[in-house]
Amino acid sequence: IMSAVAFDILPLKLHPFSQSTPTGLDCVGWKRRISSPVITDGALDKTALTDEVGSEEDLYEDFRSSNHRYGHPGGGGEQLAINELISDGSVVYAEALWDHVTMDDQELGFKAGDVIEVMDATNKEWWWGRILDSEGWFPASFVRLRVNQDEPMEDYPLKVEGGKEDDSSSGTRRFGMGQTTKDQMRTNVINEIISTERDYIKHLKDICEGYIKQCRKRADMFTEEQLKTIFGNIEDIYRCQKKFVKALEKKFNKDHPHLSEVGSCFLEYQTEFQIYSEYCNNHPNACMELSRLTKVNKYVYFFEACRLLQKMIDISLDGFLLTPVQKICKYPLQLAELLKYTNPQHRDFKDVEAALNAMKNVARLINERKRRLENIDKIAQWQSSIEDWEGEDVLVRSSELIYSGELTKISHPQAKSQQRMFFLFDHQLVCCKKDLLRRDILYYKSRINMDDMEILDVEDGKDKDFNISVKNAFKLHCRDTEEVHLFCGKKPEQKQRWLKAFENERRQVQLDQETGFSITEVQKKQAMLNASKQHHTGKPKAVTRPYYDFLMRQKHPTLPTTLPQQQVFMLAEPKRKPSNFWQNISRLTPFRK
What we know:
- The protein is of the alpha+beta class and about 600 residues long.
- Among the domains are: about 75-145, SH3 Domains (SH3 type barrels); about 180-375, Dbl Homology Domain, Chain A; about 390-535, PH-domain like.
- The chain has helices at about 1-5, 55-65, 75-85, 180-215, 225-230, 235-250, 265-270, 275-295, 295-310, 315-340, 350-385, 490-515, 520-535, 545-550; strands at about 90-95, 115-120, 125-130, 135-140, 145, 160, 165, 400-410, 415-425, 430-435, 440-450, 455-460, 460-465, 470, 475-480, 485-490.
- Pfam families: RhoGEF, SH3_1, SOS1_NGEF_PH.
């Protein structure tokens, strides 16, 4: 099906890739199961569904009686284009939107902004790529394809209708009919920014009018609090983006796109873009609430009815709700590419340069919050592995492990020394004891409130408070109670690392206060519940990561087109190599220094 659709359009290599939305929202084409209209520009042929889509009640009843979840046959022109380029010997590059932290030796880890060579894009969700000497699988939704691939395409023959090669002298063509000049490259990037903003506005409108509007009519199914959890402040984002697009359109030079001056638009709206922080911070809550609701069939049928009534492309609601998260992370990559092809003499150069720095700061803040929210599962699992835990959970006050390591603690009254493992979180320092026989087992001993402490560097020699000789030592002194804790490291370097860690802990606390970062009670309880379930099964198993799982699962599962409707089943995500990492969770804890 997809091959036929792909060859009905112009040669794929002549078209710049589209990066408007998550993989699947910007497909060149696929066939719909209802009446099979072809999507060739990312938008659904609305006339094709007019006669067959009835009222919400009809759809709802139809879905309820059919008792299954619909999915699309999958595929997309962009994916075919990538594989065609790769098979022809071209080098295809993608840029990472987010960090991909992995502990699987078959997966490729990277940080936001890293450039990845895409070597195989056959699978929609997981691609195979290379960074320097490392190769592995990575989630396709975590990257954005470059608009202008650095490898020149003049060396590769262009295909024309009929499948024959074009041996004409048009060797200067790239990404369409333009010349391979810096101005043409800038034109490609400008066109991408404008077109993807228009597509993005349509997706936001569909969410607000197709889902939120319908949900508000069903007070028997949704409370206002639930809608706020699921959709966050996406209506505010929609209003902001509409104004932003209008500003871009005014700066867009249709006749000569490379002369467009769009940098000032990003600078003008950089403050307003901070509303994305609230949305991204809430997104894990939305994922968990959606996961809970869609365990009930009537909600699955209702959301699908909303999608079809709005004539939206075949992406599940969680996929649409991910688009704002991805969009704000794509701006720095788009601006970086725009700056690359903007001459220093161009009137837009300084504004684009400033806009890139501004949007990097916005994306960095959001990316950091996302990483912190993903870490809470690991913290909860770590706590569940500690024996004899006492007092409140770590997550009640903390959300980040700053540093960990072994130290000698010296206590009053007889200056008794003890070897202990210490874990420094924001706001608190947790002390544990290793098991005498099994050194991978830890027992909880105590904790220190870091908000009340000041750090004192102790010189080597005799300490007057404890009346003993010390080396590589430092103290924690409580301002209120005058209580003093003395610690010694094995080497001077270890002491310096701890002193630096205490500085980082205070800096992290201050930054969280300034940015308003916090973890909701729902997120804390869910993380501890997941850890508790895993702990009580009696054997280690894979981490439960609702937010991470939703990032992986943006689209409906791929369904075989030959399968009758009555026999549609949910199919598994791409298989990943089984890892024995969590079988060694105690020894290979992610909190090792």
